[in-house]
Amino acid sequence: MQDRKAFLVIFAIAGALIIPAALTLRTVLHPVILQATSDNPTPLGYTWSLLLFIIPIGALGWWFASRPDLQFPRKAFWRTISVLTPLGFLLDLLFGNAFFVFPNESATLGWKVPAVGGAIPIEEFVFYLAGFTLVLLSYIWCDEYWLADYNVPDYAVATKGIPRIVRFHFASVVLGILLIAGAILYQKFLSGAPEGFPWYFIYLVCASLIPSAGFFHTAQPFINWRAFSFTFFLLLLISLLWEATLALPYGWWEYRPRTMMGLHIGAWSGLPIEAVFVWFAVTFTTVITYEVIKIWKALGTRALEAFFGIRK
Questions:
Q1: Measured in whole angstroms, how far is the alpha carbon of residue 310 from the centre of its chain?
Q2: CA distance linking residue 288 with residue 290, whole number of Å
Q3: What is the per-residue DSSP string for 98-136?
Q4: Is 201 exposed, middle or buried (0-12, 13-18, 19+ CB in 10 A)?
Q5: What is the mean pLDDT of the chain?
Q6: What SS3 class is residue 271?
């Protein structure tokens, strides 16, 4: 019951911030266009901006490494990173050129990784690794130190009686279907640009809600929702500075219109709503993956038995 209340409080706080922000942003009917005064306004800007992730990772990583009592979370940390980072890399390697374009090459080192449709700046791959790592380390720091009074102290005891981790969560599936249907309808009938299809939003919904559909029912009591909220709002702050304030205005990357739903925030250099959805979804996906891995390891059984209850 306490977990459910904390979960609802997070949404209430988020709503109290999002609603007035959305109403205020809607008053910008004629967005001001940034006028560059140089051919290279942000030399290596994208590259240096990754310090927003790397420096906090260094501080939190030092704390994490200096805690010998956190062997169990440490093992789950590495397994979570090994699952999520390849998914980010795969997005760039297979769909990076379908969803994004990188017009300001001088904002990067110029080192590129071959991908479908053309090479991708290496900064993109560093971002995925650093982004997932910072989110997870922030959550673990809160869960094990700053807000440790609200964590699950003994997973071996708490996981007893769990027949299987995968349990269907109907609400997640319904929400996913409604979001995808709403994106398609908006793009085709309200966006004013019905060409193309909102593939990026569909990808994001599937990537975030598929884990929720299978794991949320089991993971919910184990998530430290107060630690989750701290991590969520930290990532939101970084994203507002990093993407809305710097990346979009200075062309570090842009979004291909034909794969977006066509809902943009004019005051933020036409930032597509899909980018904002990423800010919300990445914390949830990272935390639920981490908690599921901890539950699996606490059960001490093979993957088939732990996840599906199938015994040999």
A1: 31
A2: 5
A3: HHEE---GGGS-S-EE--TTS-EEHHHHHHHHHHHHHHH
A4: buried
A5: 91
A6: strand
**Tens digit of each residue's pLDDT (9 = 90 or more) over 80-133:** 999 999 988 998 999 999 999 999 999 999 999 999 999 999 999 999 999 999
Beta bridge partners of 255: 100
Closest CA to 67 of 15, 6, 141, 136: 141
Query: CA torsion sign, 245 to 248 to 252 to 255?
Result: positive
CB of 119 closer than 8 Å to CB of 109: no
Contacts of 32 (CB under 8 A, 6+ apart): none
Q: Report how far apart, in Å, the C-alpha atoms of 151 and of each of 5, 108, 168, 294, 302 are.
A: 15, 40, 24, 13, 25
Residue 123 CB neighbours (<10 A): 24
Token pair belonging to 238:
């970084």
**Shortest CA distance to 207 belongs to which of 94, 123, 303?**
94
pLDDT at 148: 95
| Per-residue pLDDT tens over the stretch 45-78 | 999 999 999 999 999 999 999 999 999 999 999 9
